[in-house]
């Protein structure tokens, strides 16, 4: 790769910008020079969702964190300017997040808080209402900025997806939930989901899927799912989890020689390069971090940018990855996906 200073900055494909604009989606990423001059931080970068709500595009994921790690990471993230916190019923850490938010003294309206319904037994209209009430209490809040289905539940609970979505839609109408989303959905799951009558009047605004150079939003399937493209066509914002993790593969993208060369050229860490790559592809990020140093490092990705050659080099890594492990894909996400995000 030639020195970064010798190449022009990257631009999104024209049709991507056109499709986003048609659905009322707009991205606000400050110019790197502005961030360097004014020391702007994560809250200055956001995407406007289809409902008009602004979602910070740099957040903190809390999957696989112990209760103590959750509390410390969330508290530090809020203190250094991160304003998007992501959790789930399955993570068992909502109480620690609520405590950290209270301790931080950051006004609630300045925090974008997202959680999920993860367990099949919580599906059904009244069960979902009861779960959300419990989550609000644990998180010490009266509303949620974003609420996801954490993958499609197995039978027989999948028959109750429509009921659960009706409950969530009612909660959105009364202001308890601001926006809705889905997570761990492949193309087949999304097509089926959008066929439900309950979804027609209250479509989701965000899809949260695994997103790294080897699995670019397609939920472990590289056989042409193209979930990011479907998101564009339906007015959904893609949010990526485990961007820095090799899960479920053994090789981490942070170890990739191409990523490391780009990082060297910018005098940045491979993690920062991967997160910046996602943002410039209009994918929001919620990297998990168990240490204060990593929380801070992950948030400091606004004061540099990748150019077209660098973006395409990283994006092309998906073509170098075997999809042999993904041949057995089913239309319903396996339960292990919930453990990944």
Automatic annotation (TrEMBL):
GO molecular function: oxidoreductase activity
Catalytic site positions: 91
Occurrences of domain NADP-dependent oxidoreductase (ranges): 65-317
Protein residues bound to substrate: 150
Annotated site residue numbers, Lowers pKa of active site Tyr: 116
Pfam families on file: Aldo_ket_red
SUPFAM superfamilies, sorted: NAD(P)-linked oxidoreductase
Superkingdom assignment: Eukaryota
This protein's name: NADP-dependent oxidoreductase domain-containing protein
